[in-house]
Amino acid sequence: MPIELMEQVKEIFGAEERLFDKLNKVGHDYTAIDFDESGLYEEEEERAFRHWKTLTTKLAKALHSGLESQQVTVGKCNDPADYHVTFTITLQDEDASVVAFDVNYANKGEIAIVQV
To answer: Which of 26, 34, 41, 98 has the fewest beta carbons closer than 10 A?
Structure first.
C-alpha cells in the first residue's frame, strides 16, 4: 500500500473513531447474547449483524469520500465479536491495483490497521 494511501486511511478512520467504538460495543453485545436452545436469541443476533453492516458501510462510505472516487468494499462478517473488519480498495490507477487491509478495533478507542 502506498504510504500516502495508508496515511489517508489513518486520517479518515481517526475522524470516524466513534464508529469503531460502536462496532466494539456491537461485539460486546453479541458476546452477551444467551445462545440457548430456545432460539429466542435469533432476533438479537440478526440485530447485531445488521448494526455491524450499517456501521461498516458508513466506514466504507467515509473511505470512498475521503479517497476521492476509489472503489471500497467491506469483507464479510462471520462473527461481530471478532473485532476485525477487512476493507478492499480498488485504486484508480492504470493497473486498477487492489489493496486490502484489516482493521482491529478490539480495544475501545484504539484501532490497528494492517495490510493483508
So the answer is: 34
d(CA 2, CA 17): 22
User: Tell me, what's the pLDDT at 56?
Assistant: 97
Instruction: Determine the Cα–Cα distance for residues 111 and 14; give it in Å rounded to an integer.
Output: 9
Minimal CA–CA distance to 52: which of 27, 16, 88, 87?
Answer: 27
How many angstroms separate the Cα of 1 from the Cα of each of 18, 35, 62, 64, 78? 25, 40, 18, 16, 26
Please give the grid coordinates belonging to residue 4: 500516502
CA distance 66 to 2: 16
CA distance 116 to 114: 6
The grid cell for 26 is 456491537
Side-chain-facing half-sphere of 42: CA atoms under 13 Å: 4
- Relative orientation angle of helices 42-66 and 3-15, to the nearest 10 degrees: 130
Read off the pTM: 0.90
Q: Could you say which residues of the chain have pLDDT below 50?
A: none
